[in-house]
Amino acid sequence: MKYIALINWTDQGVQAAKDSPKRLDRARDMGHAYGVSVEQAFMTMGDVDMVCIVDAPDDAAFARFGLKLAGTGAVRTRTLKAFTEDEYRSLMNSL
Predict the structure, then answer these.
(1) What pLDDT does 27 receive?
(2) Sheet holding 2-9: strands in order across?
(3) Whole-prediction pTM value?
(4) Strand, coil or helix: what is 50?
(5) CB-based burial, 26-44: b 16+ in 10 Å, e otherwise
(6) InterPro entries from the xrefs (predicted)?
(7) Distance CA 46, CA 57 (A)
(8) pLDDT tens-digit map of 42-93
């Protein structure tokens, strides 16, 4: 299952912004414990500091990962469940 994680740094995360690449590496390692893979990460400008494309076996695994990530205190996330193009086309064809 695919997810889009919209990530904002907390005050703590901003104070240690230069450590953000290390935190991303740790998040990727953390995700493996839940079967979660951070496939792509983008630093963004605007209302959101980072956007990540994430793959997880199910909603529960992603939720555990997200809670563990938020527990670090450096980020807050909003999540969009995403459908691949094949899933999207299949869904539309079933209407």
Answers:
(1) 97
(2) 37-43, 50-55, 2-9, 75-82
(3) 0.90
(4) strand
(5) ebbebbeebebebeebeee
(6) GYD/TTHA1554
(7) 30
(8) 999 999 999 999 999 999 999 999 999 999 999 999 999 999 999 999 999 9
Structural contact between residues 56 and 35, judged by C-beta atoms closer than 8 angstroms: yes
Give the residue extent of every domain in the chain.
2-93
Which residues, at least 6 apart from 55, have a Cβ–Cβ distance to it below 8 Å? 1, 2, 3, 36, 37, 39
The continuous run of DSSP H or E covering 7 comes out as strand 2-9
Q: Rounded CA gap, 83 and 91, in Å?
A: 9
Residue length, the chain? 95
3-state secondary structure of 43: strand
| CATH assignment, 2-93 | 3.30.70.920
CA dist 20 and 77 (Å) reads 15
